[in-house]
């Protein structure tokens, strides 16, 4: 019986990568009412894609958005649209 050493694997969840200045590489969609609470109290928020994190940065126009969050958000019914 032989044994081998497996290469080291990055276990950091997807979507939490940051740039050298600690700015997230992409932003996620979260419940609007939870953003301020998280930013002030440090509470965790859950993004549409399931990513959990505290809000520490605000996106700027043109900031990259999590593709999974964006797809889920675009599939949600628009508020005020009641075609029934």
Tell me about this structure.
It is extended and about 65 Å long. Strands 1-2 form a two-stranded antiparallel sheet. It has a domain of 44 residues. About 11% of the residues have low confidence. A hairpin with a 5-residue loop joins strand 1 and strand 2. The longest helix is centred in the middle third of the chain and has 10 residues. The protein is an alpha+beta fold. The protein is built from 2 helices and 2 strands.
End-to-end gap: 67 Å
What's the tally of helices? Answer: 2
Side by side, the strands of the main sheet go: 1-2
* Beta-strand content bin: 5-15%
Radius of gyration, in angstroms, nearest whole number: 17 Å
Q: Write down how many β-strands occur, each being a DSSP E stretch of 2 or more residues.
A: 2
* Alpha-beta content class: alpha+beta
Helix content class: 10-25%
Average pLDDT figure: 78
Q: Uncertain runs with pLDDT below 50, 5 residues or more?
A: 11-19
Written as H for each helix and E for each strand, in order along the chain, the element string is HEEH
Q: What global shape is seen?
A: extended
Quick structural summary:
This protein has helices at 32-41, 67-75; strands spanning 44-46, 52-54.
Which key terms come to mind for this protein?
2 helices, 84 residues, extended, alpha+beta
Topology at a glance:
Blueprint: H1 32-41, E1 44-46, E2 52-54, H2 67-75
Antiparallel strand pairs: 1-2
């Amino acid at each position: 019986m032989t044994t081998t050493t497996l290469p080291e694997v990055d276990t950091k969840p997807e979507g939490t990568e940051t740039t050298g200045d600690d700015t997230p590489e992409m932003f996620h969609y979260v419940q609007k009412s939870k953003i301020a609470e998280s930013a002030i109290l440090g509470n965790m928020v859950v993004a549409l894609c399931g990513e959990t994190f505290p809000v520490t940065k605000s996106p700027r126009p043109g900031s990259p958005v999590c593709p999974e969050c964006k797809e889920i958000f675009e599939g949600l019914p628009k508020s005020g649209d009641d075609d029934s």
